[in-house]
Amino acid sequence: MKILVDADAFPNALKEILLRAVLKRCITTIFIANKNISIPDVEHISMEIVSLGVDVADNRIAELVEVEDLVITADIPLADRVVAKGALALDPRGTIYDEENVKYLLAMRNLMDELRNSGEITGGPSAIDAKTVRAFADGLNKILSRK
């Protein structure tokens, strides 16, 4: 198992939780973004910088992911691609995407996107708070405990 992180918008508060977990378990972890992200200088943790562009990081993650890997992303279409390859995805808000829920969550995301585009709904997700940090930590722990 390796962990791939869609790191462009990954919150620092959650990065600390993730790093503690992967350092403790020596899990290969790759942060993928279009800019440099500060990570520890440890053999099994790396950073891959991709070019700017729509879905460039997502496409690289989809290319690298293998069965039983974990991808951390808030991007539900990417999560769908990951699950289709036999891996799991974890949202920074703690939702675990798997075969049982990803299609439903993708449909809900598409509906909400349509409602936002039509002006029916405005705004986005709330800020990361202590409850969200706990939910992410719990989801990560649940996945890592399976391995």
UniProtKB/TrEMBL annotation:
It holds the Pfam family DUF188. Belongs to the UPF0178 family. It comes from Sulfurovum sp. enrichment culture clone C5. This is UPF0178 protein BN3087_430011. It comes from the Bacteria. Signal peptide: none annotated.
